[in-house]
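Hi everyone,

Forwarding the result from last night's run.
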Amino acid sequence: MVMEKAAMASFGVAEAGLVGRADVDDDGRERRTGTLVTASAHIITAVIGSGVLSLAWAIAQLGWVIGPAVLLAFSVITWFCSSLLADCYRSPDPVHGKRNYTYGQAVRANLGVGKYRLCSLAQYINLVGVTIGYTITTAISMGAIGRSNCFHRNGHDANCEASNTTNMIIFAAIQVMLSQLPNFHKIWWLSIVAAVMSLAYSSIGLGLSIARIVGGAHAKTTLTGVTVGVDVSSSEKIWRTFQSLGDIAFAYSYSNVLIEIQDTLRSNPAENKVMKKASLIGVSTTTTFYMLCGVLGYAAFGSGAPGNFLTGFGFYEPFWLVDIGNACIVVHLVGAYQVFCQPIYQFVESWARARWPDSAFLHAEFPLGPVHVSPFRLTWRTAYVALTAVVAMLFPFFNDFLGLIGAVSFWPLTVYFPVEMYMAQAKVRRFSPTWTWMNVLSAACLVVSLLAAAGSVQGLIKAVSGYKPFKAS
């Protein structure tokens, strides 16, 4: 509350003295320059992440019928709810209302303080989880490159181990440097590079899948996925089915940064119209790649599809192509990490500066080349990156971790709050047809999230038993 009052007061001063200047927007902040292209790039960067790597495994659990159907259903729900959320950037009017700079502020403006607190808790838990998940994924891909080159040099029978711990330390060091960029407005170029990388490694995975299929791989596939009594037990089939729902949900996770992305857009044309187009472009693009990666990955590997389908092609030949694919994953997730951690950085720094407005440590900025270095930013952001790296080192379970993040965040952030805010803003009458079907949608997604969470927790418990942290693999 203290932070928000101070922020509102500072915004009021800014508006009184700066509105009307060519270099500032209607709220007194630096003029936003984002476009449909940059917003689409941010979305693609946020969506096509490590989630695409687990889709072949997810389709293998669900089969040819349910797998693609579930993937398509998640994409439609994500796009629909994102469109609702885009109208909540300004309130009470979606075009001329007051700006909401974060997802939490949008919830507060439309639903009140109580739900704002719940939303903030869900959002920041998800953002922290995603950054941990991206640290795990990057380390795995870095290790895959090292193992591939080792096998190529020393033969296929060589003992080629890779240390995820070392790779995570390297990744964390890179993130410490990039985290000194102050906000989203300074990383638009990073998102574009990362979006290109995501399309590149997805395409490589598709190409390797097609080559494997054309080369005569006779993978076992079925209409219903892995077979009970042959591939898995009946209980494993159920748990894996639930976990696959979480993996697919995670693959579409970006609603938690949508408002922050929308806050980078210029105000003409209206931000909500541009954001809806960007969401359609982003979700359509990613769904096309997801469907191809999931379906062709399942066709290539069958019931034995690996959790990370790009590492399932072996580390042998063409080793250089597998190396390029994994290198693209690394570059992409370097950028995606920043997209998801920037809202955390902004929240903590705004709160701290409002709480201690006279602190020289919190407010100091020193020029260093093209950027300004803040002692507070350097200290706290370095600590955050180090913490996420340590957690990733302790629990490097790719599939289960992604499934749990997706399960926990999908219903509240992608469905519930956008639906509730839309109905509050549009003043939808209780028990009207619109009110009824939107609540049915929300309830159905809640059930799916609970089942997915149960499956992922069971998978984590199974993976943790007997695991030794900091061990090379």
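The radius of gyration is 23 Å.

Cheers,
N.
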